[in-house]
């Protein structure tokens, strides 16, 4: 069904946008590297492809005259979500450009900011690209080379948004959110690590899932042993 | 002034950014330490004292200045504290700090957007399982209404960002959280905290310099006119001026409730409204201070409603009440409705000015002529001259006699001096000398016990007033 496809595409774009933003956070800091810039480039391209796909599908759905009223309202809601997602993507791309210009990697003069981040963003990029491992194929000065492409892509996204606003007539204020305040607290049925099992990150408590599991296993083993011993004692006496 | 602001703010922020980059130098920069949490070790922490030291050395400034500079940097969010994140202050001791990532640097090109804040609050909501701080809850609800059309996106994006964060190391996750928190503390400060992004009111002096007048003949003619008029203004010597000022203050000081206190007690402090009820516009027995004030000048007497009435009584005895009535009628005309002016003028004329009128007032012939002329084309201020004449007459003639009259003397004798609120011996009978809590703080569940207290206080106050 068109609705499900649109929703799936939108979820994908949403995921890529979140990952992109996460990666732009690290630009200029000590976690910055040529790999990061390449990851940004690849993620950006994927986001662009998804955005185009989304736009085509949604415009087709909105132009379709045989759609029921509820379906039309649903498509309009998805459209609004899509345009907001593009807005955020565009802002992050602009920020990435500015930060990329300010913190070139090959020039030794400017020092990277010691932000405390030590790990890499490979995992995030892999999640964005929906692959197991990231492949790095670019040259050593991708941070400079990429900037021109980035500028062009920002223009493209800007134009796309402008076209969208002009061609599709969806008044934003008529869309009502499905979620009430606090809806995010209820754990989702859809995929991924849900918020229910999320570890609370506080500086005092440092629980690790593995150590919790280990402790549980050891405890249950001891308990079973104790039960067996008790049964033996009862049987023998 | 918009131009100036756009120029100044980025310039200052740019300077701060340069300082921050200077601090990163591995040889000449600030000394870095590791932050040890329970299991994780996070690098790139520095102590407050190290920062202050570095600033002193780099810029050759005093400790005080360095502390001030450091404070500015922290307040603008370039460095954030690790121990007490809500308090954006640089302490010159071993409290830890860390640099903020450039993404979150203060930039005027992309000021913090409502959408981003909504996503941040949604994320925090998920992490803390609904336990947000008061003002964050308010913002959350506000934003839910404001950007309701994209709220679904906010929730989606918040969830996805948290999932993306899970792909990173534990230490990095903590750092990112701290960074975000610091960013939003600067951009959406809790109520009561200074907002560094707010600009003060613009100095509007630029407008006078913008209008460049061509210095031609007209300009100079106007200048000459202006200077002539300025020279012709009446001037009073400052010695005379100041004498009059001193006299005024001497005279009025015992009557000023703030300078000399007020009897029975200041209602704003003791919640006892006797002072106001005793000094109400129409009260049977005026206070002594009030009656004394009528003797200061004629304006005081007429301005006080009670004094006005008493003066009218006095004039009736002297058979010159029509003067005051005329004056009152003229005041009504001056401040009355535009539509009723013609009517008013006519009635005043009939009552007071026409030959053979019932309450004829004695005005000199010149003024009378002028007024009669003016009545032909009535407007608000036709009676001004006549009114002024009568006013001066009353002031010079009737007013001094009033002050010397028996009537005034009896008023003075009968006037009350309100007693000061007595301090009760027994503490529970003492009047509450502190202001009552604001009604806004009185919650419905708490109202009954508080109401009882209030009733008690009122009862003792009533008892005290009579006693």
TrEMBL record, chain A:
Keywords annotated in UniProt: Membrane, Signal transduction inhibitor, Transmembrane, Transmembrane helix
One GO term (biological process): negative regulation of signal transduction
Transmembrane residue ranges: 213-234
Similarity comment: family membership: Belongs to the RGS7BP/RGS9BP family.
Record's protein name: Regulator of G protein signaling 9 binding protein
Species whose genome carries this gene: Vombatus ursinus (Common wombat)
Species lineage: Eukaryota, Metazoa, Chordata, Craniata, Vertebrata
From TrEMBL, chain B:
Annotated spans, Disordered: 430-467
GO cellular component term, pick one: plasma membrane
RGS domain mapped to chain residues: 297-412
Domain DEP positions: 26-109
Pfam families assigned to the protein according to its UniProt record, in alphabetical order: DEP, G-gamma, RGS, RGS_DHEX
GO BP terms: G protein-coupled receptor signaling pathway; intracellular signal transduction; negative regulation of signal transduction; regulation of G protein-coupled receptor signaling pathway
UniProt protein name: Regulator of G protein signaling 11
Gene behind the chain: LOC114043777
